[in-house]
Write a structure and sequence with these properties.
The complex is a heterodimer of chains A (about 475) and B (about 200).
Chain A lengths: L8 H9 E4 L5 E4 L2 E4 L5 H10 L9 E4 L16 H17 L2 E3 L9 H7 L8 E4 L13 E4 L2 H10 L1 E4 L3 E8 L8 H12 L7 E6 L1 H4 L3 H9 L8 E4 L3 H7 L8 H14 L9 E6 L6 E3 L7 E3 L15 H11 L14 E4 L1 H4 L2 H11 L9 E4 L4 H9 L2 H7 L3 E2 L20 E4 L15 E4 L2 H10 L10
Parallel strand pairs in A: 3-4, 3-6, 4-5, 6-7, 9-10, 9-12, 10-11, 15-16, 15-18, 16-17, 18-19
Antiparallel strand pairs in A: 1-2, 2-8, 13-14
Helix pairs in contact in A: 2-5, 6-8, 13-16
Chain B lengths: L10 E4 L1 E3 L7 H4 L19 H7 L15 E3 L12 H8 L4 E4 L4 H9 L4 E3 L2 H13 L5 E4 L4 E4 L2 E4 L4 H9 L4 H6 L4 H7 L2 H4 L2
Parallel strand pairs in B: 2-3, 3-4, 4-5
Antiparallel strand pairs in B: 1-6, 6-7, 7-8
Classes of the chains: A alpha/beta (about 475), B alpha/beta (about 200).
């Protein structure tokens, strides 16, 4: 019998997609799925045109419109003329190169990281690239997926390849069982808080352990989505029955007997028991609390009832960052984030805009009404999520509770459309970044948390431990 | 043979601008409202726009003494967050040709390589000395040398870090990866055909 394979999933996928190794140690890596959107692709198509080249694998390239699209109405022409121009540019590029575009009229439009999985485009063992840092989301299926810039979008369009150095792998085992009212979002915020926002530089994160294995696909997507916020360009979960059950019958997934053959390959691509890792970390799942960010990067987070750190409690080199964050957020050290009055509540994004997120938020929303001083929005991650939610009556639950029910898009996660904070408003948000100015106002403030926690904050008008409401 | 543009990046020399702070994200480097465009032209003037407005003229990019700097000295995890190439594009169009810092977020780093902009790292103590030196004497010339992998200033000559793959791309002038990737020719299609999800399960 041959000796057990010491390779992780990352190593196996990397080896399978290596076109060649360069003398400088870089790999020319084949990209199995290229996802594009309206914001980071137009310059790449222009460069392609200037080189006189065509898209090398148009059948492995898929497009949608998500970042700039208005969420009040998607009727064409879009009310925002610049958004309309950018969508037309994408339409022109897709037409010219024979690329499938999921536009609003297709019924399949949505945030690129929501529609890839729901259409079955995202499969285990793939390499996936997209001009968006949250491409790490797709790793939930056991794919190696990462964000790229526009020049690299050009490279993939022209050659279906990227020039990359192989990352190291850190296995993160979340042990035990999560408590009630603790969600995938809390798990990843807790991991980032523990390992830091720079901790993942040079690594891909392999998430494992009982608490991860117990998660649904949608929860795993939330975890992998924020790998990049921990500095890891890619994050993944080894494929298992949960993965296969999710994929069975999806439009672009293999069908019938081919699906069963695919499962055999997907199982073989997973990290085996003899896999070697550059690093291993264990996170006790039972200790994770509903977690909220209080600062200006996603690692500045704590349990909802925990006091915010004082300068004396953090290492010297973190003090300037702590002082800057607390000054910007106007929060006090030593006091808990619970009770912080909010102005806006945002439920949506590629992190938490899927149907299970909306179900959890609705479960909380039905217990009351949005506080009078709060503007609350629910933005489904895709048209499919919206249809499903409407079929379940979730839109009515939200509307009755005083939330706005919007159309699919990235919306207030990055505020490239009209959904923006105003002035120094503070927003309870189910999105992924609390950077200064991220939600569209230079002085706007963001508190990241799970969708259920956002719903609780919307009802009470202040940050609330969701466990008090469910 | 027609004379080809020399794309090799062997060294970057010039004045430096110190931008202190860790975890400076690309939303701060270029706010998302400036991504509503189909070209990168004109982005330079908006680099760090919101930070500069809040600093009311005190931001390093607005200080006269650092005007014309070619090298941006930064902290750790510079360029984290969004993959927007608009961030290095904006800094490049503002005149920066190299970055020296504690560490760089990977997507930002890759975007810089694709534009021929080196991001080199220094040890913590060396970086602190470089910051101090540049603040004390902004007129001095700082040299980022990719052949000897060093950063030289009045503070001394420090060993710099840069992964070999990126270093060789810059030094050999092959940082525009498309040409290199095309050299693989049909091997690209051959590799694709070995993948069951491409060839059919």
């Amino acid at each position: 019998m041959s000796s057990p394979d010491p390779r992780s999933l990352l190593d196996k996928v990397w080896d399978a997609h290596s076109v060649r190794e360069l003398a400088n140690g870089q790999t020319q890596l084949l990209i199995g799925l290229h996802l594009i959107h309206e914001v980071t692709s137009p310059q790449a198509f222009q460069m392609l045109r200037e080189m006189g080249r065509k898209v090398r694998f148009p059948g492995r390239t898929f497009a949608t419109v998500d970042h700039i699209i208005p969420t009040d109405s998607q009727v064409r022409p879009l009310s925002d003329s610049l958004a309309e121009d950018m969508l037309r540019e994408l339409e022109r590029n897709c037409r010219e190169h024979g690329i499938t575009l999921f536009d609003p009229a297709s019924g399949k439009q949505g945030i690129v990281h929501v529609i890839g999985p729901e259409l079955g485009l995202t499969l285990p063992g793939m390499t996936i690239a997209c001009g968006d840092s949250h491409t790490s989301t797709h790793g939930a299926f056991g794919a190696i997926a990462f964000g790229i810039g526009t020049s690299q979008v050009r490279d993939v369009l022209a050659t279906q390849c990227l020039l990359l150095a192989r990352p190291k792998v850190r296995r993160i085992e979340v042990t035990g069982k999560l408590g009630g009212g603790v969600y995938a979002k809390d798990v990843i915020l807790h991991i980032i808080r523990t390992l830091g926002v720079k901790g993942g530089i040079g690594y891909a994160y392999e998430y494992a352990g009982p608490a991860i294995e117990a998660m649904s696909m949608e929860e795993r997507l939330t975890v992998c989505n924020m790998s990049i916020e921990g500095g890891a360009r890619a994050g993944y979960v080894n494929p298992d029955e949960v993965t296969f059950d999710y994929l069975r019958g999806r439009p672009y997934a293999p069908q019938g007997e081919a699906f069963e053959r695919a499962i055999a390959w997907w199982r073989a691509i997973a990290s085996g028991p003899a896999a070697r890792y550059a690093d291993r970390v264990e996170i006790p799942g039972g200790e994770i609390q509903p977690t909220v960010t209080w600062g200006i990067n996603p690692g500045q987070a704590c349990g909802v009832a925990e006091p915010l750190p004082r300068a004396s409690e953090v290492p010297d080199d973190e003090r300037p960052g702590l002082a800057e964050a607390l000054a910007f957020m106007r929060l006090r050290p030593g006091e808990p984030v619970a009770g912080t009055r909010i102005d806006v509540a945002f439920i949506g994004s590629c992190t938490n805009g899927r149907i299970s997120d909306l179900r959890e938020a609705a479960r909380v929303a039905q217990r009351g009404h949005v506080a009078p001083h709060v503007r609350a929005l629910v933005v489904p991650g895709s048209q499919e999520v919206a249809r499903q939610a409407e079929a379940e009556g979730l839109d009515a639950v939200f509307r009755d509770a005083g939330f706005e029910w919007r159309e699919a898009g990235c919306s207030m996660c990055l505020a490239m459309n009209p959904d923006k904070l105003v002035g120094d408003q503070i927003c309870a948000s189910s999105s992924n970044r609390n950077f200064k100015g991220r939600q569209g106002s230079p002085t706007g403030r963001t508190l990241l948390m799970s969708p259920a926690m956002v719903a609780a904050a919307a009802l009470r008008g202040a940050v609330t431990d969701v466990r008090e409401l469910i | 043979m027609a004379a080809e543009l020399d794309t090799r990046v062997l060294r970057v020399a010039g004045r430096a601008c110190p931008l202190r702070g860790d975890d400076i994200d690309t939303d701060r480097i270029i706010p998302a409202r400036y991504l509503r465009c189909v070209t990168f032209e004109g982005l330079g003037e908006y680099a760090f726009e919101d930070d500069r407005a809040q600093a009311k003229g005190d931001h390093a990019l607005d200080q006269e003494r650092y005007a014309g700097a070619a090298i941006l000295v930064v902290g750790r995890n510079f360029g984290c967050g969004s993959s927007r190439e608009h961030a290095p594009q904006a800094l490049m169009r503002r005149g920066f040709r190299a970055f020296v810092g504690g560490s760089f977020a990977e997507i930002f780093f890759g975007n810089c390589v694709a534009l021929g902009l080196p991001c080199v790292t220094l040890a913590t103590a060396d970086l602190a000395k470089l910051f101090d030196s540049v603040e004390l004497d902004p007129t001095q010339e700082v040299v980022v040398d990719l052949e000897s992998l060093s950063v030289t200033s009045r503070a001394g000559r420090f060993a710099a870090g840069l992964p070999e793959g990126a270093r060789s791309q810059l030094v050999e002038g092959s940082w525009n990866a498309t040409a290199v990737l095309l050299e693989a020719g049909e091997a690209i299609e051959r590799t694709a055909r070995t993948l069951p999800y491409v060839a059919g399960f």
